[in-house]
């Protein structure tokens, strides 16, 4: 896990792809995100919106994009996926893929890539 964590921190961008399951990302993606908690400090901070999150350990970390996908997703599932993901990880860009490959390529092209700083 140490090598994976180091590769993660050396990356500029990390993209997670997950099926949208009842408005959430998969348990496999949740497990990966949880395993990378070692790159954060082991205490919680209260954010300005009242939610809590781990304090950052490093000044910079990779830009992280969560890409949800699924066939015939309801508008509620899409919104729930975005809301829950953004509530837990302020720095994530969240997208839901329901269109053509060109649509997602265009959407990804609008994302500013590179390391970011600030709260996770």
UniProtKB/TrEMBL annotation:
Domain NADPH-dependent FMN reductase-like: 2-37
Family matches, as InterPro entries: Flavoprotein-like_sf (IPR029039), FMN_Rdtase-like_dom (IPR005025)
Protein name (Swiss-Prot/TrEMBL): Multimeric flavodoxin WrbA
């Amino acid at each position: 896990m140490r090598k994976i964590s180091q590769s993660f921190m050396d990356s500029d961008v990390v993209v997670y792809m997950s099926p949208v399951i009842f408005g959430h990302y998969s348990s496999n993606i949740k497990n990966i995100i949880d395993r990378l908690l070692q790159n954060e400090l082991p205490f919680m901070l209260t954010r300005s919106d009242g939610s809590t999150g781990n304090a950052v350990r490093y000044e910079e970390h990779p830009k992280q994009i969560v890409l949800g996908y699924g066939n015939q997703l309801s508008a509620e599932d899409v919104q729930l996926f975005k809301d829950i993901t953004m509530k837990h990880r302020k720095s994530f860009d969240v997208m839901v893929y329901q269109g053509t490959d060109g649509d997602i390529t265009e959407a990804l092209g609008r994302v500013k890539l590179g390391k970011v700083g600030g709260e996770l």
